[in-house]
């Protein structure tokens, strides 16, 4: 039974949230146009570490949403067993030495909520997951979460777009900036800087770090805690690492074709300068230091070489929780803005499409509504 109350949707943004939602709407028979300023995955989705997890401590609703997100990836993996862009080989994490080390507390918490976790000493790691230099692990040990994984978001987005286009979805790329068109208190479409207008019954704003500013143009407030992110992709190397590593000085993720993805907050803070025109200037000595930190945690301490460097905003709401759903003040205007876009990518698309298509609120998104920022 088709319970659609709309027939068309325009989506600004061809990252994981926009494309995932677009595909889910197209599966429901709704006409969808995705408008992007450049090629697909040219924003935050193209420079994401893409670690699929719900590790450590967060609110209960956020944990449940992330676990649902991981569930959808498991279904996708089962249907695409040969995909080299989606793997569930676990995650390994440890903290710096000293009073701030929370490994024991994190392990106890994860165990208490049924999150699959093993507390390992350094000398136990090799028998559980390969490719780690145990000398880099601090004395409280590490947590191995066997149910975690990773996804290469640009490859996933390409995979989803294939079905989207087959179902009649329209992808408009290289349009420059766009804006939501609002008339009579309702979103009625999207207009690009060239003046081209795409009319629709509803609009989804899914432009990653640009969401808060774009929403503000319509008088809507979203608290923004977006920092600059730096993601380094290495050249191909022969190495046995399978798990995603989250360590005090570097995060390391296996990637397709035998490459590695690397990031660290300190590297972004020290290695990226924002110019007055909004462009970025990269300190390559900091990139070299990040490569050295990654080498230290890898078995054999291999020499790592840079293949590419991605820089830009990492979407993080001010309170750390996702911002999902419709603006109450503007009919037909929906928004998706969150950290952990990879983990949430498939489930957010599913739940946003449910709300857009039916006009009903999904209970899993109840605590993530954008109106929570309005009082501030």
Describe this structure in words.
The protein has 376 residues and is of the alpha+beta class. It folds into two domains: 165 residues, FAD/NAD(P)-binding domain (3-Layer(bba) Sandwich), CATH 3.50.50; 143 residues, D-Amino Acid Oxidase, Chain A, domain 2, CATH 3.30.9.10. Helices cover 27% and strands 25% of the residues. The strands form five sheets. The protein has an eight-stranded mixed beta sheet with strand order 6-7-5-15-16-17-14-20, with helices on both faces. It has a six-stranded mixed beta sheet with strand order 9-2-1-13-22-21. Strand 1, helix 1 and strand 2 form a beta-alpha-beta unit. Helix 1 runs parallel beside helix 4. The longest helix has 20 residues. The relative contact order is 0.20. The mean pLDDT is 96.
């Amino acid at each position: 039974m088709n319970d659609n109350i709309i027939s068309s949707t325009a989506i600004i943004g061809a990252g994981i949230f926009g494309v995932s939602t677009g595909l889910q709407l197209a599966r429901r028979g709704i006409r969808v146009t995705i408008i992007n300023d450049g090629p697909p995955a040219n924003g935050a989705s193209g420079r994401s570490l893409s670690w699929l997890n719900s590790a450590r401590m967060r609110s209960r609703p956020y944990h449940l949403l992330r676990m649902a997100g991981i569930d959808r990836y498991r279904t996708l993996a089962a249907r695409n067993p040969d995909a080299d862009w989606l793997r569930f080989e676990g995650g390994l994490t440890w903290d710096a030495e000293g009073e701030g080390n929370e490994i024991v507390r994190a392990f106890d918490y994860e165990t208490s909520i049924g999150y699959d976790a093993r507390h390992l000493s350094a000398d136990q790691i090799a028998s559980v997951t390969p490719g780690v230099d145990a000398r880099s692990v601090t004395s409280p040990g590490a947590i191995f979460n066997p149910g975690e994984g990773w996804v290469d978001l640009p490859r996933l987005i390409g995979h989803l777009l294939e079905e989207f286009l087959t179902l009649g979805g329209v992808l408009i790329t290289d349009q420059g900036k766009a804006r939501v068109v609002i008339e009579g208190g309702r979103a009625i479409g999207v207009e690009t800087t060239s003046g081209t207008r795409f009319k629709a019954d509803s609009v989804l704003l899914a432009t990653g770090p640009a969401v808060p500013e774009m929403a503000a143009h319509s008088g809507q407030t979203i608290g923004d805690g977006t920092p600059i992110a730096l993601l380094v992709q290495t050249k191909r190397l022969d190495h046995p690492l399978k798990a995603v590593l989250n360590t005090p000085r570097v995060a390391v993720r296996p990637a397709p074709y035998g490459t590695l993805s690397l990031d660290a907050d300190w590297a972004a803070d020290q290695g990226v300068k924002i110019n007055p025109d909004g462009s970025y200037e990269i300190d390559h000595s900091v990139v070299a230091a990040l490569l050295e930190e990654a080498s230290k945690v890898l078995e054999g301490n291999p020499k790592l070489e840079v293949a590419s460097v991605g820089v830009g905003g990492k979407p993080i709401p001010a309170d750390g929780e996702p911002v999902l759903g419709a603006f109450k003040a503007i009919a037909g205007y929906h928004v998706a803005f969150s950290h952990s876009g990879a983990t949430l990518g498939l489930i957010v698309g599913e739940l946003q499409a449910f709300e857009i298509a039916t006009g009903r609120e999904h209970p899993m998104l109840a605590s993530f509504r954008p109106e929570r920022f309005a009082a501030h």
